[in-house]
Design a protein that fits this description.
A hairpin with a 2-residue loop joins strand 6 and strand 7. The model has no long low-confidence stretch (mean pLDDT about 95). The protein is an alpha+beta fold. It has seven helices and seven strands; from the N terminus they run E-H-H-H-H-E-E-E-E-H-H-E-E-H. The strands form two sheets. A five-stranded mixed β-sheet has the order 2-4-5-6-7. Strands 1-3 form a two-stranded antiparallel sheet. It is globular.
């Protein structure tokens, strides 16, 4: 059974999240997080290390504030979808008791009534390498995050809306991309991730340090 909880405050939401593996955790488990290894995450989840608070970092604050506007723009650009959102949401699925999903929104196709995940990202492109990561694909860590959300919600599809920001000596330009993911087309990847997360959850439960996972293992 899938259920959505709406918590009363950000503090309660943050506390609830610590008990589960979340979307931003998932890429570390399979070695595809550029900022954290699976062992780093295990140390955080087992209380050996405190997770860094990045909520006041400028780019993070920008992304948080931009989210509501990007969601409204998506509604205007894609009127065939009904988009819903509740603050401090947490989705749970009893098939995956170790996992949760906090969504930027959820979508209903008004013709097929299929359900979808809405995820939005903002990034400032400072190097050509960053631009290449978004060329006709989703960066690996964000792709894993979307797979995690599909796993928890059992939804039929997902849409990732990305705003790429370029700043050339104060001349700001924006590029918007939309990536549509059909659940059936990534079913095997979801199953692989679910298995990896279940094994990682067991390492947390038994307080046993996991072996380091390298990026080419996925």
């Amino acid at each position: 059974m899938v259920q959505m909880l709406q918590l009363k405050s950000r503090e309660e939401w943050l506390e609830k999240r610590t008990s589960f593996i979340g979307g931003s955790d998932a890429s570390a488990i399979v070695g595809l997080n550029p900022y954290m290894t699976n062992v780093d995450l295990w140390e955080i989840k087992t209380g050996r290390r405190k997770q860094r608070d990045i909520s006041n970092v400028d780019v993070v604050k920008y992304g948080t504030e931009a989210e509501k506007y990007l969601r409204e723009l998506f509604k205007l650009d894609f009127p065939q979808y009904k988009v819903d959102y509740e603050e401090h949401n947490i989705w749970l699925n009893d098939k995956f008791p170790f996992a949760h999903a906090s969504l930027d929104g959820w979508i209903t196709d008004t013709e097929s009534f299929f359900k979808g995940v809405f995820e939005c990202k903002t990034t400032e492109i400072l190097q050509s390498m960053q631009k290449e990561k978004w060329h006709n694909k989703i960066p690996d860590n964000y792709y894993i995050q979307v797979l995690h959300y599909l796993m928890v919600t059992d939804f039929d599809f997902a849409v990732l809306k990305a705003q790429l920001k370029y700043n050339y000596a104060g001349d700001i330009s924006l590029s918007t991309k939309h990536y549509f993911i059909n659940r059936e087309e990534v079913k095997e990847d979801i199953e692989y991730l679910a298995d990896a997360e279940a094994k990682f959850a067991e390492y947390i439960k038994t307080d046993k340090r996991p072996p380091l996972v390298l990026p080419d293992n996925f």
